[in-house]
Amino acid sequence: MQKKVGVLLVNLGTPDNPGVSAVRKYLFQFLNDPRVIDLPWLARAILVNLIIVPFRSFSSSKIYKMLWDDRGSSLLYLGEDLRDELQKKMPDHIDVHLAMRYQSPSMESVLEKMRIKNYDQIIILPLYPQYASSTTGSTLERAMKIMKKWYVIPEVSMVSQYWDHPGFIDAFVERGKQFNIDDYDHVIFSYHGLPVRQVDKVYDDGLPCDEHDCETKITELNKFCYKATCFATTRALVSRLNIPESKYTVAFQSRLDKNWLEPFSDKIVEEQAKKGAKKLLVFSPAFTADCLETTVEIGDEYVEIFEENGGEKLDLVPSLNVHPKWVETLENIVKKRAIA
After folding, report:
1. Which fold has domain 179-316?
2. pTM, 2 dp
3. Domains of the chain: which residue ranges?
4. Residue numbering of the annotated binding site for Fe(2+)
5. 5-162+324-337 topology per CATH
6. Which residues are annotated binding-site positions?
7. Among 90, 186, 211, 320, which residue's beta carbon has the most beta carbons within 10 A?
């Protein structure tokens, strides 16, 4: 008898609609996750529930309205498209599902449907290429908390990261080749930011991230360090795209305060404009689907910053979305892990 396999793709999440109440609900769930804001419970509760959520809900709602289109939130519908395209590549005994870590479709509801299917194996595949506790770690922890309540727990396979998968690199290289990189004065590889304390927690030797050569190489100690894998992702891409070291910068966006990974992407955009750069190209290799951080933050806000400081044109390299090489990469990952 052919064994049945269920695959769960998981992305971060999105409000159900761009209205203030829906955005507030999303921010409440997202920011109260102790892996996202890793402060003691009381400090996190005060910061999130009395300061961030009340004050950011209205401004965030305006930004989400800029993102929303006829199909809704791109993070959700691109995820649905990816699920459907991957399903076409799967044999009959492998089913592909999609959930969001926060909001709908929830991991609880989708995993319950998968439980009822009585799969022999479940593969949890977060759509974050580089491991971070606040994304992949939170997703895998949530899956374990849900499944540990099941009376019957099938074989489970969890994917922690795949930034170095040749297919993932190939897919972003293909995206980059849509642009004539020689036409640009500078290239920015912009990754989502993290508090410095979170990358420091990766290490058990008592030394901070800054003392582990994270910007230059991958080692046994730093292989799960988000900063190290972001720089390694960039090295792999610039090598394939023949971008000289002097022409690119690795930076981090979406910070909440100054104690986050540096340099900050918006500051690099501003600095490049002030140095006389007229054309910038921005990659976002931490995001596999276009979303608020790419479409609005880079595609609108960074364009405005660049032009206000003398720049003329900033182009965003699209995320992988449903690129055929990206679908093929996920197919490869799933089939390699699926039981026979």
Report:
1. Rossmann fold (3.40.50)
2. 0.96
3. 5-162+324-337, 179-316
4. 192, 293
5. Rossmann fold (3.40.50)
6. 192, 293
7. 320
